[in-house]
Amino acid sequence: MNKTSRKYIILRAILLGLAIVAIAFFVTRSLYHREEAKKDALRRIRERGYLIALTDQNTLNYFIYKGHPMGYQLALLESFAKYLGVPLRIIASNDISKLEYYMYYNAADLIALNIPITSDGKKLVRFSDPFGETRLVLVQRKSQNPAKDGPGLITNLADFPQDTVYVRKSPFLASQYHSFYKKTGKNAILKEESDVSEEELIRRVSAGTIRFALCQENVAMVYHRYYRNLDMSVLAFPLFSYGWGVGHSSDSLRTEVNNWLKEFKSSRDLKQTYLEYFDNQRIAGFLQNDYFSVTGKNKISPFDDVIRQQSRLVMWDWRLVASLIYQESNFKPGLTSSRSASGLMQLMPETAAKFGIDSAATPARQITGGIKYLRFIDSQLPDEITSPVERIYFVLACYNVGIGKVLAAREKAEKFGKDKNRWNGNVDYYLLRRSKKDPVAKNDSVDDYPIDYKTEGFVDDIVSRYYHYKNLIR
Fold first, then answer.
1. Is there a contact between 40 and 251 (Cβ–Cβ < 8 Å)?
2. Residue 463: enclosing H or E segment and its boundaries?
3. What angle do CA 4, 10, 15 make, to 5 degrees?
4. Which regions in the chain score pLDDT beneath 50?
């Protein structure tokens, strides 16, 4: 056998091996997907330890305003996560197809949007009970100058000209879009936008960059208060119910959603939450504010540049430091607490003096001093805490209550068989959640563990807000 033949045989063997590996990979992935699909979402949530929800980013559902995460869907999701007794994590995208993709591969537990409950949608998800009802309306710009702007308002769909109507691409709305198309005598040319919110379509109509859009009526009416040059009176599709969506294998999660929703409705919290956002008179102020995530200015506070720069001292994501500052002072540099903690980072007088901060310190110096204190805390923690994430939890706890109390809680956790190098469910329990009446502690003296802390949720709140900042601020 010559050299060329041997090389050919070797090459064929390599290609065959690669083909076998590729086939094995795809078969394994398919089997994994099937196994995950068999595992109910509620069980996955319990095993994982938190709820993963999908929603979109806009002035109604999910946004940051002056450092505070807000939104209709966020408020509902926080209530539901509390009902389940687990933390909340959100994946946000304005691309509905992407959200559906996450659901298909079990990367998330539910879609929290006002999804039309339709036969098309039921092929993709299992719907919760309805949250409410709305309609589709035609959004068009009022003509200020007919000679320049063209024909006046459309008042009857039967008279619709051959023109483009922009819609948000959504497999859940396909039947409504088709119904509208037929009502226009098939004159409407539907243009689907895949990564855009209804709010953005409305803004484009107002700006005159597009002429027509279809939007849900309750959403359109919110923005009508701000975009006064729009008409939204023409009905494109009659009343339909909307709800959340879960995977087809998630019947127990769907049951939990419905049970929570029944309680939420009966307490009138659903109506109150809806009115807080859909009857929102403050939207004009939001849209004109630099610290509003929807405007795309990517600002949390006036101090972002300093926080970005100084966060390098402690090797943290600047948005995590920003979340800590919001927790401490709401970005108010002159704030002084009842315990004499002061400034953006609410340092106690002795700590502030140690890191060069006095009453005349500028916001930049306050931030620098506070971050140096974070670095100091990290240097005092035992090297046994090897996980970077766990170290962050411990540093935040120490920042709030002091290093000594946290180290004492580590010893207490170890004494009772917990992992002294893990925060959640271990050291935090002994620092924050023990009480004199705790039956587990009956063999200890009453002085063995703290009972007077006001730090419940301090670390969790900062970390949760940080995830929202990561979602919405780049």
1. yes
2. helix 458-472
3. 125
4. 27-38, 435-454
Specify the pLDDT at position 453: 41
Q: Extract the tokens encoding 75.
A: 């408020």
Q: What is the pLDDT of residue 282?
A: 84
What is the pTM assigned to this prediction?
Answer: 0.85
Equal fold, 133-244 vs 304-472: no
Angle at 83 between CA 82 and CA 87, to 5 degrees: 35
Whole-number pLDDT of residue 249: 82
Give the DSSP H/E element, type plus range, for residue 213: strand 212-216
Q: DSSP for 274-329?
A: HHHHHT-TTHHHHHT-TTBGGGT---SSTTHHHHHHHGGGTT--HHHHHHHHHHHH
Q: How far apart are CA 243 and CA 280, in angstroms?
A: 21
Long-range contacts of 41-49 (CB under 8 A, 24+ apart): 41/106, 41/109, 41/110, 41/246, 41/247, 41/249, 41/250, 41/252, 41/253, 42/250, 42/252, 42/253, 42/256, 43/252, 44/106, 44/109, 45/84, 45/86, 45/109, 45/253, 46/86, 49/86, 49/87
State which amino acid sits at residue 454: K
- The residues near 65 (Cβ < 8 Å, ≥ 6 apart) are 286, 289, 291, 292, 293
* 247-300 per-position pLDDT tens digit: 988 889 999 999 999 999 999 999 999 999 999 888 888 888 999 999 888 999
Contact between 366 and 344 under an 8 Å Cβ cutoff? The reply is: yes
pLDDT at residue number 152: 80
Cα–Cα distance for residue pair 255/472, rounded to 1 Å:
30
Would you give the distance in Å from CA 44 to the centre of its chain?
19
Query: Which superfamily, per CATH, for 133-244?
Result: Periplasmic binding protein-like II (3.40.190.10)
Helix axes 251-266, 269-278, angle to 10 degrees: 80
For residue 243, the cross-strand partners are 115
Domain 304-472 CATH class label: mainly alpha
Q: What are the residue boundaries of the structural domains of the chain, listed by start? A: 133-244, 304-472
